[in-house]
Amino acid sequence: MGQTLTEKILDDHLVEGELETGEEIGIEIDQVLTQDTTGTLVWLQFEALGLDEVQTELAAQYCDHQTYQFDFKNTDDHRFLRSAAGKFGAYYSRPGNGICHNVHKENFAAPGKTLLGSDSHTPTPGGLGELAIGSGGLDVSVAMGGGAYYIEMPEVVNVHLEGELPEWATAKDVALHLLGELTVKGGVGKIFEYTGPGVESLTVPERTTITNLGTELGATSSIFPTDERTKDWLSRIGREDDYVEIGPDEDAEYADTIEVDLSDLEPLIACPSMPDKVVPVDEVAGTDVEQTIIGSCTNGAYEDILPAAKMLEGRTVDKKTEMIVAPGSKQASEMLAREGWTAEMMAAGVNFSEATCGACIGIGHVPGSNSVSLRTFNRNFEGRSGIEDDNVYLCSPEVAAAAAIAGEIVDPRDLAEEFGDLEAPEFEMGTKYSDGMGQEDPDIISPDEAVDDELIKGPNIGDVPLKDEMGADIDGPALLKMEDNITTDHIIPATQDILMYRSNIPKLSEFTLSRVDEDFAQRALDSDGGFLVAGENYGQGSSREHAALCPMYLGVEGVLAQSFARIHRANLFNFGLIPLEIDEADYENIEQGDDIEIVDDVEDAVRSGQEEFTVRINDEWELTAELDASERERQILADGGKLSHTKKQADSGGDAAPADD
Ligand code: MIC
Ligand code: SF4
């Protein structure tokens, strides 16, 4: 039987286990990436593990999320990151150089390689055949130290593309279509592999828009085969030597196949406040728009901004709407500026931001209260934009530009008909990308050019807390009961006021779940232990391990949920919080404040492989909860998390560095 592309790459990198769906496998990681808001912990943990040099082929540290440096704490974080990259041997990309996924794609991503990144949108370079996976920071630290990365072998799903996109439909609409069909949980435990004749009609930037948004499906990764398009893109960017032809075998077998006829697609939009609330643009046409933003790691490339620029040529942004362009990389900015498109857009009334994540997580351009913002981003979770009752819609650059011109949501096809002279912008790639890529890029410091060789820690940069072994008895109140699809933005918001404490866990933990219940942190601290209770897909969204580490710091012992998002579930193990699955009826019956006791000798049961746990509620009734965990995860959990586990191994004479079982 032939292999899928995913299986081929995994096979090449397999260090443990077998490629059987659901089985735990360990893979070797070629490249790692990290960014400013997860990177500080990555390096603090790298240091705490006693590691002293990057072991992967390549490690890259980007400063992209909080580049405005509103507070010295952000600037200190950036300085620390530069010093860590210098000391341990990673590339460092300066603040303002662009979003990690865009800059990594431009400089380092390569077909057939594995990439692990402490950001959930790490799968972006899947669009050029790299198998890229997002994870918590501690997993990145370990991989960077030469340790394997462990995952449950996902199901490989074939997304079979036919046809070609019609005018005004874009790669964003392919991804939105899938989100509408499959929902934000539809990809959990899956890798989406794109095949079929429709693939060749899509360019690399279009493919990376699709793979980027695979994260919103909950997928482990998304990947395209390579072809002439990939070769062409790599050569335009000056990296043709990185090209390798890879794809699935003809007789590869997939767990499932999803058929998408590109020619059936039309402009789509995700309504507030979930990326899967997708409707045709027409359905919400006429809604007044106060703000549109083009940018982010999804649609911030030169090729994403150019169509909007063309639509705006000779036109102006409606007086009641603000339009902002936040390029995904400085290269995109530079190319648009050199070609005169920046001036064209400025003349149309567009404002420019530096290349940053910024507004995507409520840092700058926070929408006005009770207003509508249209963004080309990938997430519109409630409150993520920086205001609690936001109305953020997600769409393509073409739909965003049409709304900016009209001042309201409009299907660009209707606007074109109304105007008569508004042509659908042709998708166009840069003929020549900027000079100075890779090691020559003025904003990238290679390990050979390192400016620091010692860590520089400002006063806000603390230590990583450690947890004790699990112990026999775990009990405490249900500290908070939450609904389905709780995001990591609920658990630890990423807005500026909170983000500046990412390297200071005691302070950061004060904000834990504050968006759900502002008294939560104090209640957790006052209680001696306790649990979180949640519905389906708990912890969806970002990779930030702070969403496990802060509850751990507050004394939370475990989470009872109907199901967990993949990265957050791994983070719970890494920080020693027991993730137990419960069924819907039991979830309904538990009340906030109930006393919860795991009846078994928990540490012993976890270590010995027990899957079902008896949980007593208020000494009145019992439920059965499941622990779905590998042998490796069980030992990590019982030891109080991966750091404690690794230290324990080192103390007992084991090999500390790769640190895994
Ligand atoms: C996000 O899009 O939510 C973030 C901010 O990029 C996060 C990373 C973080 O919290 O620092 C992610 O996607 O992992
Ligand atoms: Fe940055 Fe937004 Fe992309 Fe996260 S989703 S990496 S915050 S642009």
Describe what this molecule looks like in 3D.
- With 661 residues, the protein is of the alpha/beta class.
- The protein has three domains: 5-264, Aconitase, domain 3, CATH 3.30.499; 268-419, Aconitase, domain 3; 474-651, Aconitase, domain 4 (Alpha-Beta Barrel).
- The protein contains 24 helices and 27 strands.
- The protein has a seven-stranded mixed beta sheet, with helices on one face. Strands 7-6-3-4-5-20 form a six-stranded mixed beta sheet, with helices on both faces. Strands 17-16-15-18-19 form a five-stranded parallel beta sheet.
- Strand 4 (58-62), helix 3 and strand 5 (91-93) form a beta-alpha-beta unit.
- Helix 10 crosses helix 12.
- The longest helix is centred in the first third of the chain and has 17 residues, at 72-88.
- The chain is globular, with a radius of gyration of 24 Å.
- The structure holds alpha-methylisocitric acid and iron/sulfur cluster (SF4).
- Residues 65, 99, 119, 121, 296-297, 357, 360-361, 377-379 line the site of iron/sulfur cluster (SF4).
